[in-house]
Design brief:
By secondary structure, the protein is an alpha/beta fold. The protein has helices at 14-26, 45-57, 72-78, 92-100, 116-128, 135-150; strands at 4-9, 30-33, 63-68, 86-88, 106-110. It has two domains: 4-131, Sugar-phosphate isomerase, RpiB/LacA/LacB (Ribose 5-phosphate Isomerase B, Chain: A, 3-Layer(aba) Sandwich); 133-162. 44% of the residues lie in helices and 15% in strands. α2 (45-57) crosses α3 (72-78). The chain binds D-ribose (RB5).
Length: 162
């Protein structure tokens, strides 16, 4: 099955989104581009971050990538939606391990922080990784999901494994 990747960016990430979109298509991914479709210095990152997060939460895309200037705003917005686990990763270890251990389904990038080639490496690490399914990772994910659905009443106990 071809992986469908939702992409979104505000003006801060606009040109990096265009570069990643073409590159992802060359790599054989299906790209769902949720804007911005034109460079508008007055646009707002929550609009595009929410569009990508909704697409991932609704299953319209298996993974999402959101780009803003720093990646911070994108990550804040994406993590507001149930079913979305977004990570701001500017190193390949986190981009891969965020999926393997934490089951992130959205990668946030800051186009004012990293260059195109590192962005491609990060995206590759993110898209090629799979959730490990290990018992401790599933247990922690269940705790995250309980907090998501019940607030801090859903908080469980501490574990001591890595
Ligand atoms: C836009 O100038 C900038 O604030 C935004 O792209 C992002 O960095 C927010 O986190």
């Amino acid at each position: 099955m071809t992986l469908r990747v939702a992409l979104g960016a505000d003006h801060g990430g606009f040109s990096l989104k265009a570069e990643l979109s073409s590159w992802l298509k060359e790599q054989g991914y299906e790209v769902l581009d949720l804007g911005a479709y034109a460079l508008d210095p007055a646009d707002d990152y929550p609009d595009f971050a929410a569009a990508v997060a909704r697409a991932v939460a609704a299953g319209e895309a298996q993974r999402g990538i959101i780009i803003c200037g720093s990646g911070v705003g994108a990550c804040i917005v994406a993590n507001k939606l149930a079913g979305v686990r977004a990570g701001l990763c500017h190193d390949t270890y986190s981009a891969r391990q965020g999926v393997e251990h934490d089951d992130i389904n959205v990668l946030c990038l800051g186009a004012r922080i990293i260059g195109v080639e590192l962005a491609k490496e990060l995206v590759s690490a993110f898209l090629n990784a799979r959730f490990s399914g290990a018992e401790r990772h599933r247990r922690r994910l269940q705790k995250v999901l309980a907090i998501e659905s019940k607030g801090l009443e859903g908080q469980g106990t501490k574990g001591d494994e890595s």
